[in-house]
Amino acid sequence: GAGKSTVLRVISGLLKPRGGTVMFEGQSIIGMTAPHILQLGIAQIPQDHSLFPNMTVRENMELGGLLLRDKRRIEQRLAQIEERFPIVKERAKEQARSLSGGQQRQVEIARALMLKPSLVLVDEPSMSLDPKTLVQVFETIRQMHRAGTTVLLVEQNVRAGLAIATYGVVMESGRVRMQGPAGQVREDPEMGHLFFGGTLSGA
Q1: Which residues pair with 180 in a beta bridge?
Q2: What is the pLDDT confidence band of residue 150, given thresholds at 50, 70 and 90?
Q3: pTM value?
Q4: What CATH code is assigned to 4-165?
């Protein structure tokens, strides 16, 4: 592939890079363990659904706050999350496997916010979602960004990804092909030929 998901796994500490470095808030995080990176404020939502299917929504959420190491703090944070994500409260006692793909994705996003990360890595959120559900999930990502969380989004649906991004980076075979403000990247004639089979104005 282009190497997009690999970049996220390197940032989150799940893969070691062959070279280069990753800087976060002024320090290199290369060589740090994934739990340490999570404690620093970087959370990842993987491409595949990651909820524990036989656990309830609430149990999944509580696991997301495990590093808080205090039941009262977990309860307080969960109450805050429930205000932003009603589904977490509405389906709290139901097993995660009973949720639709889009609902699972929303709970995954909510769980990622339990530790109040400053950066959330979101890998291919549109995977296996129908168009209507995709709109809902992307709106959830917008809300997360508007609330002050930086989002690094990897998305194969180029149109959808650039539509909600502020800055875009296009990768091809592990290399950066182009980058810039999302609107500028989207309108670049080269993008039309690379991904859309013609100019965007004619799409």
Answers
A1: 168
A2: very high
A3: 0.86
A4: 3.40.50.300
